[in-house]
Amino acid sequence: MAIAKAERLMNLALCLLGTRRPLSKRELRDSIEAYVEAFGPGNGATGHDDSFNRMFERDKDDLRELGLVIETVESLEGEIGYLARRDSNRLPPITLDAEEAAALGLAAKVWQQARLAGAASGALQKLRAAGLPEDVDPYGPHGALEPRIPVHEAAFEPLMLACRDRRPVVFDYRKATAAHPEQRHVEPWALECWRGHWYLAGWDRDRGAERVFRLSRITGKVRSRSGRYTADVPDVVTVRETVASWAGEIADRSARIRLRSDAGYPLRAKATAVRELGDGWDELEIPYGHGLDAWLVEFGPDVVVLEPAELRADVMDRLRAVAKG
Questions:
Q1: Which of 27, 127, 182, 280 is 20–30 Å from 78 (CA)?
Q2: What gap in Å lies between CA 314 and CA 208, rounded to an integer?
Q3: Residues 122-172: tens digit of each pLDDT
Q4: Under 8 Å CB-to-CB from 179, ≥6 apart: which residues?
């Protein structure tokens, strides 16, 4: 079975690489012997269309996982076709010095999830085959480090693949101030981890603007969509800077809050002044910028906003939304 699948994937890859124009599912079904044997010709009434479509989608995803760049093209008649351009699937010669090899090795070691760990290990093997010296240990200079990037959100993997393949996606997203999620149509650009949370930056088609989404607020499955991007992908995507500004990192004012004495240590670290109130409460003065209300809500009943009034009102609105949800 493994040999049969490998042969089928190889034949599909050769078809996609060998064509000068996009091939439809029907044409690929008729061109690959394994598909014909299993499901019959594409124009026949075999009753196996759903089974073929599922196998084809799995095969296509497997090839993309292996690194083949497959383009999805829609014709003027609305028919979807596929091809793998040779110039998009050809790498230049790779030459790495010891420092560059160490950096790539450290990046590969970061990923601890099983599926990503396999891809990282395979990438290192390819670098060896491309000429990376055997006596260069990518992990050597950093042997005392055990870098990890935690990924708990189910949305991470499909979004990572969508960013890589430049595929639009659809998902349900619940804002911090909303009781219920709403559907978002997004052209994903980049994923980045900031302070233990993963964020996606991309073009929100519904709002016609760049947006950043926190993966933990994505509900349900991330679904891919065919077609090209409608907005240009910027050369530099500033995910951290955007999130930092939303999280109150860029502050131009001060706020006063009450905080339980044994809670809110991240808030205490940012405080410019602290005064003990007694009865288990302290008063803090902290920098106030856009998004501070969302951060304060995370501390729940351990925080009470004293001033300014608009910050107190924003926090109350968010708490009411959480209570309704």
A1: 182
A2: 26
A3: 666 666 655 555 555 554 544 444 555 566 778 888 998 899 889 999 999
A4: 321, 324, 325
